[in-house]
Each structure stands twice: as structure tokens, then as C-alpha cells.
Amino acid sequence: MTPDPAFLFLTAPHREALAGLTYSILNRKGFVVLTGDAGTGKTTLLGRIFLSIPSTRVRFSVILNPTLTPAEFLELTLLDFGITDIPASKAQRLTLLQHFLIDAYNKHQVAALVVDEAHKLPPDVLEEIRLLSNFELADAKLLQIVLAGQTELGDILNRQDLRQLKQRIAVRLAIHPLSASGVEHYIQYRWQKAGATLPHPFHPDAVTRIAHCSRGIPRLVNALCDNALMLAYAEGKTTIGTAELIEVAQDLDLEAPGRLIRPALAPPNAQRPRMERKAETPVAVNGHGNRVANPAAPAPVLVPTLQSYARSADKPSRLMRLANKLGIAAKPAEAAKKD
Length: 339
Hints:
With 339 residues, the chain is α/β, with parallel strands linked by helices. The chain is built from 13 helices and 7 strands.
């Protein structure tokens, strides 16, 4: 669940974003914007950038929590650049930053300010960032700025009052959720990256469930697979099917209990399967006007639903089954009272 760059799965948009960020920073393009839905890998992608570019070429200041005042934002920027003796005056802070940027330029180093969760930036801090981009020479930008945030960041930058900031954006990049086939490749990639030599244990139908429940978002795929693996271990299974995925999806509140799960990534206009209805015995009317069973009528066809996989009230929870597997036994009632 952590943004480990070693596990970054490079789809085509991720490769483009990685190349675009590297190019923009090293070539001093100024403003770069990276957007993507929550959990699609923006922070992991940034982590790969930090590892792939030598620190001798780029000096990074990384802001992970941008819900700051303009003064706090400037202070944190300086601190993350390694400047610890920070004056109280804003004018002196800006002068200190300018000297730092010029020194880095003279040493053939790039100074890059990276703001994650940038969609949370207050308007006054966005204006402060725009003003920081004024640190430049006639032929080069002294400060490279990367804004990475969720898709609503694009809407924020389209606001009329931020048009000056939008005009300074040199490169805009975007990453997207995985396709249905991409989820299958993603699971196999991470499975092998973790050290496995055999194919992953998820049945094709289970992968389809994962693709639907996660909507192609890698972070949710991780959560579903991790919990499904834990459940399979608790039950002593070596393969994971649809039933396990439905139980896990319910526990994670990714699917409401008792509700049908549609096929993965079904188009919006696709017809939804009907809910199972209680079967009624075919009837006929005899000569006396009484209703009787009609043996000639065809038997009703029942559509399987999620109820087929519903966990009974007597069945222990997923974590309780894991506790049993690990040998964590419950205390007798008498011992529990003494404790």
C-alpha cells in the first residue's frame, strides 16, 4: 500500500509522464502539472523521479502536505532545500532563496520544487507559487515547479483568477486508471516483482471482480489482492476465486452486501442483471375453481446472485479465520473474567 518506486507498473501514460517529468525538470521548463485520479500512482511516479535523477544534478524540495499558509509554504520550501537558518522576514527569506537558486545554477544543478496533493493548495499559496516562478534569468528558469494532484487540479487551474498561473504551465501530464486487461498484467507484474516464480493464484473470474471493484485504480487493486491473499492463507487455499473476492470487497466496503456485482468495467448503457426472485410453484385451476400445481408448466430458471456467496452468520470473519490459522486461540470465559 506504500508508494514503492520499485513496484511502479509503467503503463503507456505512466511512461509518458515519467519521460515528461524527467525532460521538463532537466531542461528547466519551469511549470509542470501532473494529474490523475486518487490511487493511480502519482506519488509512486514522483518517487521514481527522485531515485532516477542523481542528486548531483537536481536538488529537490518536496512538499507533501500543501495545506499551509503562504509564509509556512515558503518556510517549508527552504527547509526541504536544506536551508535551516531561516529569517523571520519574508523579504530576507526570498533573498535567501534567490541566492540558493543562483548558487545551484552556477554549479550546473537544477533546483526543483515538487508539490504533491496540489489540488489541496489554497488560492493564496497558488499565487505564492506563481510568484516564485519569477526567479529566472534571461535564458533559463532558476526554479522548476512540479504540481501533482488529483484530476480536480485541472479544473482549479482553469479558473479565471488563476489564468496567469495557467499561462506559465509548460507541460501538462496525466495518468489514468488501468484497463480490464491492464489489471491482469498489473497483478502478475507485482506478483513476480515480489519474488514469485509461478503465475499469480487469482482465478480469471476473480481478476474480473478485482477490475470491477477497483475500477482500475492500482491502490484498490493492492488492497483487494492483499486481503484476498490473507483470506486464502487463513483457509489453507492455494487459489483465489470469486467467492473470496466478494467477501473481501464487502469487508472493504467496495461493494454493498447483497448487491449484484456487474461485469468489470461494463459500459454505462449495459443492461444490469436482474436480481434473483423467489421461485413460485407453477399453478393451474381445476374444475372446481381451486388452484393446483401444474406439472406441465416449465420450472422457473433462477439467476445466481451474490446471495450464493453470502457469508452465513455462523461463519467466522476473515480476520478470525486468520487468527485461527496463526494459532491465536480465544481465551476461555473463566480466564477472560479473571483478566
